[in-house]
Amino acid sequence: MKKNLFFLFCLLIINIFLWQVIFQITCPYFQVTFLDVGQGDSIFLRTPQNHYILIDGGSSSKVLEHLDKKIPFFKNNIDLVILTHAHDDHYLGLIDVFQRYKVNNFLWNGVETKASSFLKLQELVKDSNIIIAKKEQRIRAGFVFLEVLHPVNSEQIKDLNNTSVVTKVSFKNNSFLFTGDIYQEIEKELENIDSDVLQIAHHGSKTSTSEEFLRLVNPKYAIISVGKDNSYGHPHDIVLKRIQKYDIFVLRTDLLGNINFFSDGEKLEIKI
Alpha helices of 125-207 — where are they, by DSSP H? Predict the structure, then answer.
């Protein structure tokens, strides 16, 4: 009797493993998850062809808790990591990511800081293919296209927030705009920004998200990555009122946790 139960248990484990592998191979959706990493940014993307992309890593190892659930145990590499800019609420978690996973490609703006933690990250990324982000770069991952909209020349920008790598990611008729921490003066320079989903820049700070920008992007959804009861007062009431004025549906990581989008290329579904 015990042998039969053990045999059935083994079959169940094998069956679960096989179905997980099959799902990883055949999943038809483009998945975008705004990860709840507290006061910081981190977004995980998975294409229908199982390319894994991570934009920023938040300020702690908390990102690993989410990646462990998103990336199957039999895959230990990430195809592309994008660092928008070198502020610690965007890059600190990437140190743990690079120590845990093999990162094939690393895209960033090339603007360094002298912080010891950032120097540690720079050592870790040396084993990856390093790409310096420039406007109009295009990266293809199966049927998903990533276009760099900013920066043009990050060396001429004084404020580190405004050096943020801005990308538009498209899957057929659905698109996402990722903005880092850019201010309104950079928003005015961006082109081809209409998108279904907008990541609100700088965690909802009043430095960003002008009315003109909201009109041009014309998103259905606005995502705010922000820590609960943070000391910065993010998101600012002024920004929330601007968004509400245009009847854009707001989703916040401090209130909802992880925010998952699933796209078949025509319509979007949200799972919290």
Answer: 184-187
Distance CA 80, CA 187 (A): 25
The answer to whether 197 touches 220, Cβ cutoff 8 Å, is: yes
- Please compute, for residue 259, the number of CA atoms within 13 A of its CA located in the half-sphere on the CB side: 22
8 lies in some domain: no
- 3-state SS assignment for residue 81: strand
Phi, psi values for residue 45, rounded to 5°: -120, 140
Rounded to two decimals, the pTM is 0.90
Q: For residues 145 and 271, what is the distance between their CA atoms, to the nearest angstrom?
A: 23
Domain count of the chain? 1
pLDDT digits (tens, 9 = 90+) for 38-71: 999 999 999 999 999 999 999 999 999 999 999 9
205 closest CA partner among 246, 162, 247, 173 = 162
Could you tell me the CATH number of the domain that includes residue 176? 3.60.15.10
Range of the domain at 236: 27-271
Angle at the Cα of 37 from the Cα atoms of 190 and 88, rounded to 5 degrees:
65
pLDDT in tens, 238-247: 999 999 999 9
Alpha-carbon span 138 to 146, nearest angstrom: 6
